[in-house]
Automatic annotation (TrEMBL):
<dbReference type="Pfam" id="PF00293">
    <property type="entry name" value="NUDIX"/>
</dbReference>
<keyword id="KW-0378">Hydrolase</keyword>
<dbReference type="GO" id="GO:0016787">
    <property type="term" value="F:hydrolase activity"/>
</dbReference>
<protein>
    <submittedName>
        <fullName>NUDIX family hydrolase</fullName>
    </submittedName>
</protein>
<dbReference type="InterPro" id="IPR000086">
    <property type="entry name" value="NUDIX_hydrolase_dom"/>
</dbReference>
<feature type="domain" description="Nudix hydrolase">
    <location>
        <begin position="6"/>
        <end position="131"/>
    </location>
</feature>
<comment type="similarity">
    <text>Belongs to the Nudix hydrolase family.</text>
</comment>
<dbReference type="InterPro" id="IPR015797">
    <property type="entry name" value="NUDIX_hydrolase-like_dom_sf"/>
</dbReference>
<dbReference type="InterPro" id="IPR020476">
    <property type="entry name" value="Nudix_hydrolase"/>
</dbReference>
<dbReference type="InterPro" id="IPR020084">
    <property type="entry name" value="NUDIX_hydrolase_CS"/>
</dbReference>
Length: 140
């Protein structure tokens, strides 16, 4: 019987806060750098529930998901393995506190994002900022 090596489903969340700020986490484990809160979907877990859980685990925040933004599937997006990430946009109140596998959680103004972003999160955030400016989503 052949061994199937399917991509792993993940979720990420762009958390919008007042003042045109978003939440990023500094990863405690490789690959190191700043990232959107998110992670792997557990077996039997809907994608939206996984996004809410991962945000709570990594930032301590209760996120309200507003919309499903896009699914990113480039096989090279995660250097560890092939993953698919369904990205949500959500809102939350308060200030994040890094926990679980987040060494730190902070807010950043959308015009002052850190340069050392992990995975394809630079692309995701560029797509998000273009969407906020123009209303146009990434083309397939």
């Amino acid at each position: 019987m052949p061994e199937y090596r399917n991509p792993k489903p993940t979720v990420d969340c762009i958390i919008e806060l007042s003042g045109e700020r978003i939440v990023l986490i500094r990863r405690a484990n490789p690959p190191l750098g700043w990232a959107l809160p998110g992670g792997f979907v557990d077996e039997g877990e809907p994608l939206d529930a996984a996004a809410i859980r991962e945000v709570k685990e990594e930032t301590g925040m209760d996120v309200k998901l507003v919309e499903q933004f896009f699914t990113y599937s480039d096989p090279k997006r995660d250097p560890r393995q092939h993953t698919l990430s369904t990205v949500y946009i959500g809102t939350a109140q308060g200030e994040p506190q890094g926990s679980d596998d987040a060494a730190e959680a902070r807010t950043f103004r959308v015009d002052a994002l850190p340069q050392d972003l992990c995975f394809d999160h630079g692309t995701i955030l560029a797509d998000y900022l273009a969407y906020k400016r123009t209303g146009q989503r990434r083309k397939l």
